[in-house]
Design goal:
The complex is a heterotetramer of chains A (382), B (323), C (343) and D (500). Chain B is α/β, with parallel strands linked by helices. Chain B has helices at 33-49, 63-73, 88-100, 125-140, 156-172, 189-202, 216-226, 241-250, 261-276, and strands spanning 22-27, 52-57, 80-83, 104-108, 118-121, 144-150, 176-178, 183-184, 206-211, 234-238, 255-258, 296-297, 304-306, 311-313. Chain C has 343 residues and is mostly helical. Chain C has helices spanning 3-15, 20-37, 44-69, 77-95, 100-126, 130-149, 159-165, 183-199, 201-211, 213-218, 223-249, 261-270, 282-298, 306-342, and strands spanning 168-172, 177-180. Chain D has 500 residues and is α/β, with parallel strands linked by helices. Chain D has helices spanning 48-55, 78-83, 101-112, 120-133, 149-161, 179-194, 206-212, 235-243, 298-306, 328-333, 343-347, 354-358, 375-388, 405-417, 435-450, 462-468, 491-499, and strands spanning 10-19, 22-32, 37-42, 63-68, 71-73, 86-89, 167-171, 198-202, 215-220, 223-229, 264-271, 275-282, 287-292, 313-318, 321-322, 336-339, 367-368, 372-373, 423-427, 454-458, 471-476, 479-485. Chain D has a six-stranded mixed β-sheet with strand order 6-7-8-3-9-10, sandwiched between helices. In chain D, helix 3 crosses helix 4 and helix 3 (101-112) runs parallel beside helix 5. Classes of the chains: A mainly alpha (382), B alpha/beta (323), C mainly alpha (343), D alpha/beta (500). At the A-D interface, helix 1, helix 11, helix 12 and helix 16 of A face strand 1, strand 2, helix 10, helix 11 and strand 18 of D. The structure holds adenosine-5'-triphosphate (2 copies) and magnesium ion (2 copies). One magnesium ion binds at residues 230-231, 233-235, 251, 254 of chain B. One magnesium ion is lined by residues 230-231, 233-235, 251, 254 of chain B.
Chain lengths: 382, 323, 343, 500
Amino acid sequence: MPIRTHQSAAGQVNSRIDNTVRTWISHIHVDRGIGRMLVLLVIAFALFAVLNPRVFMNPLNLQNIMVSAPEVGILAIAMTLAMLTGGIDLSLVSIANLTAITISTMYTGLVGSDPALAESLGGVIVLVGIAVGVLAGLINAFLISTVGITPILATLATMQIFNGIAIVWTGGKTLYGAPQALSAVGKSTVAGVPVLFLLFLVVAIVIGLLVNRTPFGRKTQLQGANPTAARFSGIRSASVLYGTYLTTGLLGGLAGVLFVTRNPTASADYGTSYVLLVIVIAVLGGTNPMGGFATVTGVVLATLVLQVVQSGFNAIRLSSYEYSIAQGVILIGVMVFDQLRFRRRTRYVASTQTRNIASMSNVGEDADETPDTAGADSVETK
Amino acid sequence: GTVGGGGGGTDDGEALSPEDMTMVTVVKITGVGWFDRMEIGVNEFAEESGVDARQEGADDASPEKQVQIIQDLIPQAPTAITVVPNSPKALETVLEQARDQGIIVVTHEAAGIENADIDIEAFDNKAYGAQIMDNLAECTGESGEYVTFVGGLTAKTHMEWAAGAQEQQEAEYPDMKRVEDPIETKEDENVAYQRAKELLAKYPDLKGFQGSAGTDVAGIARAVQEAGLEDSVCVMGTSIPSVAKKYLEDGSIDKAFFWDPALAGKAQLKIAELLASGKKIEEGTDLGIEGYESLTKLDGFDNVYVGDAAIEVDADNVDDFDF
Amino acid sequence: MTLAQRMKTLAPRLVGANNEGVLAIIIVVLIIVMSLLSPSFFTVHTLFSIVRSALVPSILAIAVLLVIISGGIDVSFAAIAIFAAYTTVHLAQQGQFDPGIIGILLFACAIGAVLGFVNGAVIARFRLPTLIVTLATQGIFRGILLVYIGSRYIAQLPDSMAGLSTANLIAIDSSRSYLPLLVVPVAVIVLIVAWMLRRTMFGRGIYAIGGDTEAARRAGFPVVRFQIILYMMVGAIAAIGGLIHVILNRNANPQDIVGTELDVIAAVVLGGASIFGGRGSVLGTVLGVVLVQLINNSLLLMGVPTAWQRAAVGLLLVVGVGIQALSARRASRRTFVLDTVEA
Amino acid sequence: MAERNEAPVLEVRGIVKVFGGVTALDGVSMSLLPGRVHCLAGENGSGKSTLIKIISGVDTPDAGEILIDGEAMSGMTPARALRAGIQVIYQDFSLFPNLTVAENIVLPAAIASRKKLFNRARSRPGAQRIVDELGLTLDLDADVEKLSVADRQLTAICRALVQDARILFMDEPTTALTHSEVARLFGLVRKLQERGVAIVFVSHKLDEVLEVSHDITVLRSGQLVASGDAREYSVQSLTVAMTGRDVDTTRLVNDLGKRGAPLLEVSRLDLPGAFTDISFDLAPGEILGITGLLGSGRGEIVEALFGLLKPESGTVTVNGAALRPGSIRSSISAGIGYVPEDRLTQGLFLEKSIADNIIAGSLDSHARGKVVLSQKRIAETISTLFTRLRIKAPSVAAPVRSLSGGNAQRVVLAKWLATKPKILILNGPTVGVDVGSKNEILTILRDAAREGMGVIMISDDVPELVSICNRVLIVRRGSLVAEFDSEQIEAQRIQEVMAA
Ligand SMILES: Nc1ncnc2c1ncn2[C@@H]1O[C@H](COP(=O)(O)OP(=O)(O)OP(=O)(O)O)[C@@H](O)[C@H]1O
Ligand SMILES: Nc1ncnc2c1ncn2[C@@H]1O[C@H](COP(=O)(O)OP(=O)(O)OP(=O)(O)O)[C@@H](O)[C@H]1O
Ligand SMILES: [Mg+2]
Ligand SMILES: [Mg+2]
């Protein structure tokens, strides 16, 4: 076998690496989860548009989808973050309700004495509400990182604690009242697009950047992928976990703000059905529940898919139970499809590779250096 | 702009014939006996009146799913939406949106709701609570300790019944005493059973139980039965005949109270139909439905009308009902 | 062996492989505290009452334990339990026939096993994450039950079941304390599962799969077959749990049980099972269930208003699991130093 | 091989296996004869483990056939392979971390004999018998996850030997073992071979290979490049066959010049149970070797330097500034990097891409204002290191899981070089790394040291230490017992002091 001279090999390798690095940088965000969700979104949309165009293509319906997506979507993004570190956050909805209750209580308290002041302090009230969410996140972080309780148990417990506090606080009643500016925001649109939806997109972009473009986000991914190696690489799990659960608390609080924005009420039991729903969304969106991998874009798309399917089912007069069957079938279907596609693709790549290699006269070190962008995700067997 | 702004129903004001109307009844949760029964009323109404009426509901009793369903219904532009809310306040915004689109909104079990044309109640919740208390007092000899169960501390009507009963007791039966704040049973019969057992152990002199969720009295009855206290402890409260029947027969439940959801469902739709054909609901309106022959306007609200549809059952008449 | 050495080997054995000892101590301390606070607590009546309330959760927890040991998490067991029990009662009701308790049991188990097979087949065949698959099948099973089978509350059970509802193993009439006969089948199932986990190749295989699935495959365990059998078994056990629930409740309500999944999982993990798989014991699980029931059913006696109950249960969960987490952390530190000593 | 006309027990023909973009095996054929030790040699990533996994039914081949006793086996599964008498000591051990040593040893045997019940009483003596036969001290009741790497390897060996195998595959069974353990293992191998077992032996320690093997098959990049009688090969010729080039193993040490202020000073470090009174220093550009028997405490010393262990007393200073004991962050910010012993679990994020792994340790320094990562700077770092370390992979986006041992180790090295460390500590940097890669890794270290980096290297491989170290320290029972300076460094003497 001829031994390549150092120069030529290095030169070749160099240019190849430049290319692969560039493709890596540009492809890193186009991950699994995005493609399939996009396809599913289009299919679902087309299907219902054909089945009941009068209702489904009604601008009002589209607007409504965009109004209801944000609160679930933001919670799902928070769940994604927790899952990225290999954890989970079951307390998100309880946190959101605590925030909503805080906002409503403060506002109604102030309105009683001075309505104008209450309105002008709207921003402060909202910030205090979000601070409550962050505080709740801090408690989660403390239990998970400092005490060392497994996230699913820690947040299961805090879910009950936060919910219990909310019940004691409200006496179980639904509180009414929130800064009017919030309600106004909740109803306003920009060029037909609800402001809430724009806010949701902004949150998604910010979290997307946080995850992919900051040292903190990358550390979160690494911590989720292999906590031991993260420790050996000088990544402090405490700072990653505190950062993560503070952020999920913040997002939970933000979802709570959306609760009162959509509807100026707050109660201990709003949104309980979201707890498991957001896990479904996160996974549909391509989040690996074992940690280490997630795409925020995929999660946004998955949120929309479920919203579209749900309102489509309503439009063609199917019941909620049929929707819950459909949701289960979609979830399993997508995952099974992913598996099959993965298997098929490896086989396909295998055969072409074999052919390539067979046709090459000189099977040297470079044989397996053929740039192969499919290689990146074809090994994700999880 | 605003969400749903600029739309607006096309059929404002003009009277429709029933055949052109579509109405949807949105209930707290589907797949439970109570609302299955309501669906029977809805279907009956559709058949009798010619209105395209149907019932929908979520797979669990959560306010957010109800919001979602109503929101999805708005683009379908039904003539009317009738709702039995899980949390009336949580629906205000979405019902407002519906009404902005010209959809008639009728609610049930939601006194105090703002964004409904009419809220129809089978009875006045306070009075209903008082009625249960009167029966309980009669049974216990107007003295002794009692407790009240509610399905959830967040369930508004349950809490109103509990409050109505307590007010009545404080006003009329000073020798009686409620020994605990309302006990939450999570709408779960087993929890009611468990709590009842604990309470019987904690308060040996306990004389009465008031239940609110349909499963409460059944769970309480089992505990009472097990303790052999059928004759010394009074068990009363809201339930449906099919659940209460066997306990009424053996005396572990003394009386059950309810109203017929089928009739309530019909009454809602009838009101919607009247409104859609340009008629008005007033004091004394006759819906032609048993218990709703002469509506009364409830004081303190401008859109709440109550019927007289509360039904009491005991061992003697429980077989008259088949739900 | 010197005394010190013996102490050293004794201590971990008392603590137990899965912290069963710690759990037992927590339970004993709670019982003492409660008895001091409320004299009516420390009675046979309370004991029987807690045992009774622990029956269904124990069975369900045993089912969940099997899944957790194998490295999965199941949230569909509650849907399977009520699906199997309700469908059985419903069919008996409609057909107006009563196949006898054994027939009913077999039928319910068969339904549970079929539903479990769906879980197992999808999970094992496609190697999908169990939490997500069972999240999906939970919605599917529940939807099918309520749309296609029935949603009515059934008040009257077939006679063979109704007969069991009030049958007692021990009845102390003076204090009105009753221990239901159903304690026996629950105890039998608990013991059988405990034996199976320790003494059969299938049981060890479940631990092996939970420890390292790929290693189990390489060692020759038929992983796919074991997983499918496992999920069928879990379905059947859950079905028995549903049946016992229905019998104890004396009615069949299709809305029951679903919604208690997280509490059951919490009890199992409180009992020392690792959610990462490979660890967990039947004893620990039963203790975990007892602890949760103890807390749930005694707060009222101790004068805690129901509004506070949820928060209180959450707090106790934090304390219980927190103690375990901290002691595990300390233990791992200790073994590290010991390791280097031996080295 | 024609000298015996016995029929092969196992034969593979034209095996092809492709992972993603990597051709792991490209039409490999091989046959095994009873009673002979067959060595499978090749560089990292040449496909040795893959071939074994295909024969044992763990992986399915894309093409080719497997014949046992001349009969073609289609759809091989691990269970069928076991029943056909194939036993494997996997490179990654494939043990159950949550079960005891005894259970790990006997479970596969019980499965193979189709047992339905697990008999605890029978399992212990069975395990004890093989442990005794190998003359080992293993705690049969310990959970495997609590064992050291060496003990795990011994457990895996016991597991494969407890049953009567007809064909035994040993994929690098000796990487974590000491000399005496290796010797005992070889003793057993000879016994088995006399009993007519066909044995396949894989190791990167070429002298071991030549010591035990009868036949040799050499793979290079998934292709069979040489095959024949072991007696025809020397370490040199085997190396050439494996790498396709000559590898230089002579001593080549950087000149340190005049000793200035030390870079690292360790003074009176003490951790009861692990090590006592450890003092030494390290000059810029110096490569310091630390060696000793397994369990001598050498690993714990460097773990304390990196902050993984907290010493009870003593100080460590870098450029005169004291480190906070037991703090990894403090060590890293002082400029210490650590390449751990167990690279798969401690060094690498297997599912993550090569690129992600390379910058895993230096994220903060690749961010503008510590907040936003600079994509450009990251790309530069990655491509520089990827090239400089000559990592062999289809692209930097490939997950590290798909890399072979040597390439994976280069990724770990790259991760630390990206942090621009002042001191790099390596614990067994060439364990399980092939000859070619090994020399390249040593060259990388020499180059880095020439630029002023201090290197501390722990190794069992004495010739390797000889070839690269300026100084070698020897640890015995937790104490430094000897120091060899440049001219004194000589393999023979080091080995003598170690074993004393
Ligand atoms: N599961 C896998 N997915 C993708 N690629 C793989 C996988 N397993 C092995 N490979 C690739 O196949 C090739 C052969 O690997 P293999 O493990 O057989 O090498 P080896 O000769 O055993 O090397 P070493 O001496 O380092 O153990 C390598 O290039 C490796 O990257
Ligand atoms: N059912 C079992 N439970 C536990 N350990 C077992 C079991 N079966 C075998 N072993 C262990 O595995 C070892 C090897 O198993 P193998 O089946 O080869 O033994 P064996 O003595 O040939 O058994 P048998 O005589 O039943 O065929 C045994 O010495 C024993 O330690
Ligand atoms: Mg009575
Ligand atoms: Mg290998």
